[in-house]
Amino acid sequence: xxxxxxxxxxxxxxxxxxxxxxxxxxxxxxxxxxxxxxxxxxxxxxxxxxxxxxxxxxxxxxxxxxxxxxxxxxxxxxxxxxxxxxxxxxxxxxxxxxxxxxxxxxxxxxxxxxxxxxxxxxxxxxxxxxxxxxxxxxxxxxxxxxxxxxxxxxxxxxxxxxxxxxxxxxxxxxxxxxxxxxxxxxxxxxxx
Length: 192
Ligand code: AMP
Description:
single chain, Rossmann fold, five-stranded parallel beta sheet, 14% strand, binds adenosine monophosphate, Adenylate kinase, ATP binding, nucleotide biosynthesis, Adenylat/UMP-CMP_kin, Adenylat_kinase_CS
């Protein structure tokens, strides 16, 4: 049983690694970005609201995001553990997640941060933009998303570091290499 988070700047490959970790550990991966994108595609009220922020690279407001996460974490498939990808991204979201977990008498085992250099990320994301046509993958928006990561999400990482549950992995390299590093880091963190 593992309850963990994966945190990383946009373009760090966290979604790809999250899928792989989820398969190997047998826990469900929950990506707030994917949930938002599915809602945007389905033109649900949540999607219409979220799109206004996502297209500019802004965070969807905590009031919307927190509720969505609380609902998702109340579903049955998280009973055997979960991997949250892309949440929390603000310290207010950390507090909210703490409350959800406390309400369920649960705690996080590992917080994994993927690290990568900003210029490497920008070039990766510009490449991805050509392939996928994601509407939040143009250079100005990419740089804004990176700024938000530094301004807000690094404070999230610092909180988990203080709690002693943070493990950092270099996200640069072949996908398989990074997965090997990630799985090793999780094993070590769980043994600690
Ligand atoms: P991602 O796929 O994780 O890069 O997320 C794509 C976009 O979804 C972000 O740029 C935000 O607009 C929105 N989003 C995802 N997760 C969150 C979150 N925890 N808080 C606020 N907005 C989020």
